[in-house]
Design brief:
heterodimer; A: 777 residues; mainly alpha; 33 helices; 2% strand; disordered C terminus; B: 139 residues; two-stranded antiparallel ribbon; two-stranded antiparallel sheet; 6 helices; 4 strands; elongated
């Protein structure tokens, strides 16, 4: 740790931007986006400065001490993996801010939206650069919370709120697993910082807690990265405004899980369970994601399901178990961030300008929106894995990595081919259907969007081409260091767009042929999928609703049982548990008090005791409730007098007041409750209540006697007697304790008194309103 | 409870009790008393006034809603802990000054203000409850 460092300021600057954006938008309107975009652009430029040194294999750590006693620091770690991620997040973030500036222009909550985006950006950059395990978790949860705000931005719509809540429940639940996971990592390795954990070698793999750590980390990663069967929240999150989808589902939020797996690969990877679970779930997610994508007609939903599929592919590659596969994953990750970001923005542009996202209603937009069409075409070609785009390089690398002779690899390869072919179908559908063919009448008269909006997709789509053309530089500066960080060993990536005749190319050709074949029958395929899904009927999305409604019913049931609203039940429970607990302790440990030695009381003491007993008898035999309440007061006053006789004036004073007030208040309450004047519980109930009262009362008597027979430890009273006058300038020790020695306790107590008062006022008012409302009817 | 004697005596009794409660509050540091007890006395004073003459006159006399008084008390108690920041000692540490006013030495301290805060919380909360219940009795 090198202390405060300008980089830390850059990494935290999005949070500042979140504060500024509402103000700036109010002053400058949509043009504030140009100014605000300078912040992520600045982060991007600053981080670029690290690229040369990281490419040489160096990693930078920096940070500030936060809570050293807990081992929690705000520390950051920049190696190939985190740097590439941070560059993608800040770079695409810059374009997204501009895009959002145009997309929500004139929206009443434009500033709030940008603020949420910045909060999310800051959290996401934190996730990929955090070094401290707890800091990583905090940033991770921040992304869940901020994405909740973003997805639910349009909070007047039910679907939006449901999607936001669903994303929060799924990713937040995974976050809890991750918290447990980082605790296990810490306990096993004894380290707090990721950079140190990563150097711990085989400690984790050899630990008996390996499987625990593995499943907990997987729980965090799979929920965040929408792996089957947790994939359902991602398409639902399309309820968010398009800039959110373009950002969260291309380079950021959903990639956090992939980041975590890649990050942990050097210490958790290279085991049988890792190399089984990741490819199995990843491939399943890939195939299911693409199949579900075929079914959709909404541009955003089609893209969302292919994002699920792409994430599956990335997870599968990360766990495949050779360095080549990791290299392929890195290529694909970069390619996906570029083309998916561009395509989502294209979908938003079409929606914004044409008024619909349904591909069946779109067509022939190429002349109206030429720039958008160009961006869509370039990005789709990359997504389809055609040369000369980075998507092609990624696909070649994937096939080169996984096409092996054993049965396992063949199976994975087959499914990957199917997934990639269907991905090509979607890419073609997104790029061709809205733009080519004859022009269709759209809800809005389509024309090219504002520069704020087409800038992003054009830049990202072009980058997908440029990065492939300058493949050598891309490999050296980004892919090799990142793959090296994931593999935990030096990697020299050297993919290029030149054709190498061989198995990978052959598989690519098969993929493309299969894709084109399916594309020709897309409507039929869609219909078939819809039929299959209808046949199955149930899905995890429905399951989520069932889970939530089940949870609500269960908690209702428990609440109804515990809070049944009957005062007698509460009192009986409290006193019964109270009495049984005392009696159990006395019996279990044989600590019954000895029979006490009675001192003959003076006549006035005896008189007071008699008064107390008479008061109690009066309570029991009183004819009506009011008499009983007042009789209780007699007993209370007698006790107060006893306090005076035994030298506790403060206590006695308070007792007098409390008794007076409780009699007054009880009487007031009783007069308001609609009760019979007399108590007419049936005999059985009376008997039971008497038994409870006797158990509790006798238990307490025995406990008091037992306590009095323990030798008295005068340490505390000596302390207060000695210091009350000297230190706190007061002779009344009780009061000095209350307001000085234990002032903080008193503060808590008076807060409770006040809250109780507020609560009672509320209760009185609720009850009071009811008869009036009835009277009005 | 609506006897003429009670209704005639109640205002005087209330005034007497409130004065007495302040006396109990202030002497609390050295003799039996303090904010809690003082607050309870004052609260019973208002309750008695309310029972005798109705809630409206009590509310008028108090001017503020009783729960507001409780809030003020809590605020005052918390503020009494703040001067310790200036002195560089932990929150709520008692600080004392002994200025001489008109030839009499006064003992002013942060615990005194804290105790006054306690007094207000107790008066406010209990009075609010009692008056709330009495309100309903009248309707």
């Amino acid at each position: 740790m090198t202390g405060m460092n300008p980089t830390i300021v850059f990494l935290l600057s999005p949070f500042l931007a979140a504060l500024l954006s509402p103000v700036l938008v109010r002053i400058m309107g949509a043009n504030a986006a140009w100014l605000l975009a300078l912040i992520p652009a600045g982060i991007f430029a600053h981080l670029l400065g690290y690229v040369p040194s990281v490419a040489e294999g160096e990693a930078a750590t920096m940070g500030v001490v936060w809570a050293p006693s807990l081992g929690v620091n705000l520390s950051y770690f920049l190696d190939g993996l985190s740097l590439t991620f941070a560059l993608l997040i800040s770079g695409i973030g810059t374009l997204i801010i501009l895009y959002a500036g145009g997309y929500l222009k004139g929206h009443a909550q434009h500033g709030r939206f940008l603020a949420f985006l910045f909060l999310f950006m800051g959290s996401m950059i934190g996730v990929v650069t955090a070094d401290n395990l707890i800091a990583l978790f905090i940033y991770w949860e921040l992304t869940s919370i901020t994405s909740f705000l973003l997805i639910g931005f349009d909070h007047n719509r039910m679907a939006s709120r449901r999607a936001a809540l669903q994303a929060l429940v799924v990713t937040g639940g995974g976050g809890l697993a991750l918290l447990a996971g980082v605790v296990v990592l810490h306990l096993v390795t004894g380290m707090n910082e990721l950079s140190l954990v990563l150097n711990s070698g085989d400690v984790l793999r050899e630990s008996p807690f390996y499987l625990l750590a593995f499943w907990l980390v997987i729980g965090g990663a799979f929920t965040k990265s929408a792996q089957f069967p947790f994939h359902f929240w991602l398409p639902n999150a399309m309820e968010a405004p398009t800039p959110v989808s373009a950002y969260l589902h291309s380079a950021t939020m959903v990639k956090a899980g992939v980041y975590l797996l890649m990050r942990m690969n050097p210490v958790l990877g290279d085991t049988l369970v890792w190399q089984t679970v990741l490819p199995v779930f990843g491939t399943a997610t890939l195939v299911i994601g693409t199949l579900l994508a075929i079914r959709q007609t909404d541009l955003k939903l089609m893209l969302a399901y292919t994002t699920v599929a792409s994430l599956g592919l990335l997870v599968s590659l990360t766990g495949f178990g050779n360095e080549k596969a990791i290299e392929a994953a890195v290529y694909y990750l970069v390619a996906h961030a570029l083309f998916k970001g561009a395509l989502f923005m294209v979908a938003g542009l079409i929606d914004h300008e044409a008024g619909t996202r349904d591909i069946r209603a779109l067509g022939g937009l190429r002349s109206a929106m030429p720039l958008t069409f160009a961006a869509a075409a370039l990005a789709s070609l990359s997504m389809a894995g055609l040369p000369p785009f980075i998507g092609f390089m990624a696909k070649e690398e994937i096939y080169a990595a996984i096409a092996r002779a054993d049965a396992w690899s063949v199976a994975i390869t087959l499914f990957t081919i199917i997934g990639n072919a269907l991905m090509l179908v979607i890419a073609a559908a997104v790029a061709i259907r809205p733009f080519l063919g004859e022009a269709k009448e759209t809800p809005k008269h389509a024309h090219e969007g504002p520069v704020l909006m087409w800038l992003g997709p054009v830049v990202l789509a072009t980058l997908g081409l440029v990065s492939a053309i300058v493949a050598h530089t891309t490999n050296h500066l980004f892919v090799s260091p990142m793959a090296g960080a994931v593999a935990g060993a030096e990697v020299d990536a050297h993919a290029a767009i030149a054709f190498h005749i061989g198995l990978p190319l052959a598989l690519s050709v098969v993929t493309i042929a299969l894709g084109i074949a399916v594309f020709c029958f897309l409507p039929q395929a869609r219909f078939a999928m819809a039929k299959v899904l209808h046949r199955i009927g149930w899905g995890p999305d429905t399951g989520f609703d069932q889970f939530i409604s089940g949870l609500v019913s269960l908690s209702t049931l428990i609440t109804r049982f515990l809070q049944n609203g009957r005062m007698e039940a509460y009192m009986t429970t409290v006193f019964l548990i109270f009495g049984v607990a005392i009696w159990y302790g006395l019996i279990r440990y044989g600590e019954f008090p000895e029979f006490p030695q009675f001192v003959t009381p003076t006549f006035y003491e005896a008189g007071i005791f008699l008064l107390a007993v008479l008061g109690l008898a009066a309570v029991i035999y009183a004819h009506d409730r009011l008499t009983a309440i007042v009789s209780l007061g007699i007993q209370g006053f007698a006790v107060a007098v006893i306090f005076i006789l035994f030298g506790a004036p403060d206590l006695s004073f308070t007792q007098f007041m409390v008794e007076t007030l409780s009699v007054v208040i009880l009487a007031l309450v009783m007069t308001r409750l609609i009760l019979d004047k007399t108590d007419h519980r049936p005999f059985g109930e009376r008997f039971f209540d008497t038994a409870v009262a006797l158990i509790a009362g006798s238990g307490f008597l025995l406990l008091l006697l037992a306590v009095l027979q323990v030798p008295f430890d005068p340490a505390l009273s000596d302390f207060f007697t000695a210091y009350s006058r000297v230190v706190a300038h007061g002779r009344n020790i009780v009061n000095v304790i209350i307001v000085d020695f234990r002032g903080l306790d008193t503060m808590g107590e008076i807060a409770v008194v006040m809250i109780a008062g507020l609560g009672i006022i509320a209760l009185i008012r609720v009850k009071a309103r009811r008869p009036r409302a009835e009277a009005e009817q | 409870m609506n006897t003429i004697i009670f209704r005639t005596v109640a205002p005087y009794l209330t005034a007497l009790m409130v004065v007495f409660s302040v006396f109990i509050l202030l002497r609390g540091h050295n003799d039996p008393g303090g904010g809690f007890i003082g607050g309870l006395i004052a609260a019973s004073a208002f309750a008695i006034y309310g029972i005798a003459n109705g809630v409206a006159p009590v509310r008028r006399a108090l001017y503020f809603h009783p729960i507001t008084l409780a809030g003020f008390g809590l605020f005052l108690a918390a503020c009494a802990g703040l001067p310790s920041i200036l002195a560089g000692v932990p929150f709520l540490t008692g600080l004392w000054v002994f200025p001489t006013v008109f030839g009499v030495e006064l003992a002013l301290s942060t615990p005194l203000f804290f105790d006054i805060g306690v007094y207000f919380v107790v008066v406010g909360s209990i009075t609010a409850i009692a008056l709330g219940l009495e309100d309903r009795m009248e309707n």
